[in-house]
Amino acid sequence: MTTPAQPRPARLAADVAKSLVLSEPAKALLSPAHTPRQFFDALAAHSDLAEDAIRFLAAALPKREGVWWALGCVRSAFPKPAPEAARAITAADAWVKEPTEVNRRACGDAASAADHGTAAGCLAAAAFWSGGSLAPPHLAAVPPRDDLTATAISAAVLLSAVVDVNHIAASYAKFLALGADIASGKARL
């Protein structure tokens, strides 16, 4: 006779936050009992903690949903991207729609072409670093660190938010609202 599987314990915000670099005011808001959603909501309620909220949500979301969030932010900030950026955005979009190994590898090439220091480059890198191997297919597998995708997602979102320096706060608010919709399931793939 088999024993029914025990439900996995709910992940706590502190578990997600432990590997993140958060500001002292953000850390002060973290309660040991907070769920990821509760802590995100607490951060998002303070406009001066928007960057912390972005970093936290990038780590809290499943990788595919996180890349989808960053994709929406990058598209919003760059409606007419340069060709290399457009290629990175298209590659990330293809991976979000169909997260195959071929699409993931295409994101790696697109991230390099767009430059890893750009929003579009970070977006494509986030998808490439989501799993698989960083090494070429004919070499031994080199898995990415688990935190690389979240790091690239937050970089893509943050870089997208500062494109228009006169509207950074509005961009943060818009991008956090989009992230909240994805996290809650209100927006679906």
Automatic annotation (TrEMBL):
<protein>
    <recommendedName>
        <fullName>Secreted protein</fullName>
    </recommendedName>
</protein>
<dbReference type="InterPro" id="IPR053855">
    <property type="entry name" value="DUF6931"/>
</dbReference>
<dbReference type="Pfam" id="PF22011">
    <property type="entry name" value="DUF6931"/>
</dbReference>
